[in-house]
């Protein structure tokens, strides 16, 4: 990656890891509060910590890391950024950073204790919503920069398929742009006027629906950059080839189509939405599982083909040929492995009857600590081991490689205890998002306590793992020996089918996506507006 472009990527990654550190402190403290081990000093509240944890890790760490990584991928595969794309990269960065700072300060001042989902009628200071708006607008500006770079490449290379990485980066940003329309509408037209007191009521059901219109594709915005690594980077690291360029592109297109009109699967238990519309969106939810199954297939095929090239025999001989000692492979691989139970948990959540059991329990918290906080986070760490030294002109040393393997193992151990306990105690009925309580020493609530202690133990191990990761990041950025670290990009297997060019027909895909969204949302949204319940004055926090 060109040095000038690399600075955009590096700045994003730096903010991401600062957010990871702060968010982790909040996470550690909250598991201790939840299990009754400590009481917070100085009037700090459990829900305040939970908001900081969710916003800093779920929104800030991910968004900054992703946009930094995507910028590096676009620059690496389509050449030095155009002036316009470079400027957009910086403008987007500053808008997001200013927005994040405002939002974080509001949370720390206890003026925005509304959790990362900021459901009405919980009401934060208007500045919290203004900060969020700046983050979203900043991400749009970054996205436009990437689209410009991609369009410039396409113009200069008429009739050719774009480099796979740049296609994937564009698909991820297209998904993000369509998804963030929902959160932008609710924040601009509902939350900001309501929190300033210009209107005294808010349509709660509509605001939650607009949030989940955004909230579900948000999880695929987290996942797709990890898939970029799994599809394109991992084949190179294991000495293999990308199984099929066309299959990878098709998987990304399916995410653009099916990840948005599915928000109701977070609202299955919400009254006020006709079950027919919930049913339709659940069917679409099962459609969005398909590209992940395709990904699993492609990964197994990649591993097997690479292993056989190296002389592996038998059904599972390829397993031994994988580079287990290379953290650039090992960390994302553990992410993939854990994505199997994590995805199964998602399918449980999405099943109507099972959702009645798990909704709003710690089972859901367990699910997303496996998906985003393990599959995605470990892959982002896996990327950092080569991306940071690549951008700073340094190398990944064998000492850091070993530390990285320890970091990954610690993470998996910590998550085994924490997420395992969350899944189990969730099935026993323990609610999510509740500060320490024994419900008047009720026997059922008391039976949850050992699991909550296991969560705290897991949380403590994870905190140590995060400290180790922060050390590794600082080392790679400032202390590692100078040199050249490869930006691994796999070549496509020569036996794969040629990529059909219609896969890059964005007008078609955005059009189909719009039709699906209109089908899934128009009638229920009109219903919500026409039959709006009286609304609520909200619970002010300041
Ligand atoms: Fe989810 C709730 C359904 C995937 C994140 N999810 C959440 C929340 C978050 C989240 C943050 O239907 C909580 C939101 C909140 O605060 O309330 N989720 C799904 C489904 C999938 C899914 C169907 N979720 C994700 C991903 C996330 C994520 C990905 C983050 C990155 N989720 C739900 C539902 C809820 C929900 C309901 C609401 C629950 C409620 O009631 O509140 C699917 O996309 C999952 C498909 C995945 C697979 C796995 C494929 C496996 C692969 C790995 C292959 C491994 C290899 C290596 C090759 C089918 C690709 C193995 C090698 C060997 C040698 C063995």
Automatic annotation (TrEMBL):
SUPFAM superfamilies: Cytochrome c oxidase subunit I-like. The chain crosses the membrane at residues 8-29, 49-72, 93-120, 126-147, 167-192, 212-234, 246-264, 279-306, 327-348, 368-388, 409-431, 451-478, 508-526. Its main location: membrane. Residues 1-480 form the Cytochrome oxidase subunit I profile domain. Pfam families: COX1. It is found in: Membrane. It is a multi-pass membrane protein. The keyword Metal-binding applies. The keyword ATP-binding does not apply. InterPro entries: Ba3-like_Oxidase_I (IPR033943), Cyt_c_oxase-like_su1_dom (IPR023616), Cyt_c_oxase-like_su1_sf (IPR036927), Cyt_C_Oxase_1 (IPR000883), Cyt_c_Oxase_su1_BS (IPR023615). CDD domains: ba3-like_Oxidase_I (cd01660). Keywords: Electron transport, Heme, Iron, Membrane, Metal-binding, Respiratory chain, Transmembrane, Transmembrane helix, Transport. It comes from the Bacteria. Belongs to the heme-copper respiratory oxidase family. This is Cytochrome c oxidase subunit 1. It comes from Aeribacillus alveayuensis. The lineage of its organism: Bacteria, Bacillati, Bacillota, Bacilli, Bacillales.
């Amino acid at each position: 990656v060109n040095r000038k472009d690399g600075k955009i990527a590096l700045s994003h990654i730096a903010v991401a890891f600062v957010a990871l550190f702060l968010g982790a402190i909040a996470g550690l403290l909250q598991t201790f509060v939840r299990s009754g081990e400590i009481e917070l000093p100085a009037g700090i509240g459990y829900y305040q910590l939970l908001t900081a944890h969710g916003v800093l890790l779920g929104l800030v760490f991910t968004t900054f890391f992703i946009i930094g990584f995507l910028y590096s991928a676009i620059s690496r595969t389509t050449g030095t950024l155009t002036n316009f794309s470079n400027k957009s990269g910086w403008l987007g960065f500053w808008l997001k950073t200013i927005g994040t700072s405002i939002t974080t300060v509001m949370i720390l001042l206890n003026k925005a204790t509304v959790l990362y989902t900021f459901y009405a009628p919980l009401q934060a200071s208007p500045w919290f919503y203004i900060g969020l708006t700046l983050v979203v607008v900043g991400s749009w500006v970054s996205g436009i920069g990437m689209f410009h770079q991609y369009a410039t490449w396409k113009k200069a290379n008429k009739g050719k398929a774009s480099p796979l990485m740049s296609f994937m980066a564009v698909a991820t940003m297209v998904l993000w742009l369509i998804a963030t329309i929902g959160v932008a509408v609710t924040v601009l037209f509902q939350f900001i006027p309501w929190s300033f007191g210009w209107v005294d009521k808010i349509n709660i059901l509509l605001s939650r629906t607009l949030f989940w219109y955004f909230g579900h594709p948000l999880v695929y915005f987290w996942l797709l950059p990890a898939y970029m690594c799994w599809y394109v980077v991992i084949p190179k690291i294991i000495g293999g080839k990308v199984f099929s360029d066309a299959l990878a592109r098709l998987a990304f297109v399916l995410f653009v189509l099916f990840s948005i009109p599915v928000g109701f699967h977070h609202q299955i238990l919400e009254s006020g939405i006709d079950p027919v519309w919930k049913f339709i969106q659940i069917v679409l939810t099962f459609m969005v599982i398909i590209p992940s199954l395709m990904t699993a297939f492609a990964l197994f095929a990649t591993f097997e083909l690479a292993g056989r090239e190296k002389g592996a025999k038998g059904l599972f001989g390829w397993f031994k040929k994988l580079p287990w000692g290379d953290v650039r492979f090992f960390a994302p691989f553990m992410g993939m492995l854990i994505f199997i139970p994590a995805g199964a948990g998602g399918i449980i959540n999405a099943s109507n009857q099972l959702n009645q059991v798990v909704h709003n329990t710690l089972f859901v918290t367990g699910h997303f600590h496996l998906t985003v906080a393990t599959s995605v986070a470990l892959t982002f760490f896996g990327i950092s081991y080569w991306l940071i030294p690549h951008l700073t002109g340094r190398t990944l040393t064998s000492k850091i490689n070993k530390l990285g393997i320890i970091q990954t193992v610690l993470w998996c151990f910590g998550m085994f205890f924490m997420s395992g306990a969350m899944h189990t105690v969730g099935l026993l009925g323990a609610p999510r998002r509740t500060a320490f309580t024994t419900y008047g020493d009720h026997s059922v609530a008391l039976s949850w306590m050992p699991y909550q202690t296991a969560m705290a133990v897991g949380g403590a191990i994870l905190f140590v793992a995060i400290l180790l990761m922060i050390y590794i990041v600082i080392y790679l950025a400032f202390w590692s020996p100078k040199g050249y670290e490869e930006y691994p990009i796999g070549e496509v297997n020569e036996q794969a089918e040629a990529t059909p060019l219609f896969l890059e027909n964005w007008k078609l895909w955005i059009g189909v996506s719009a039709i699906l969204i209109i089908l899934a949302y128009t009638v229920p949204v009109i219903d919500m507006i026409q039959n709006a319940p009286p609304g609520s004055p909200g619970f002010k926090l300041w």
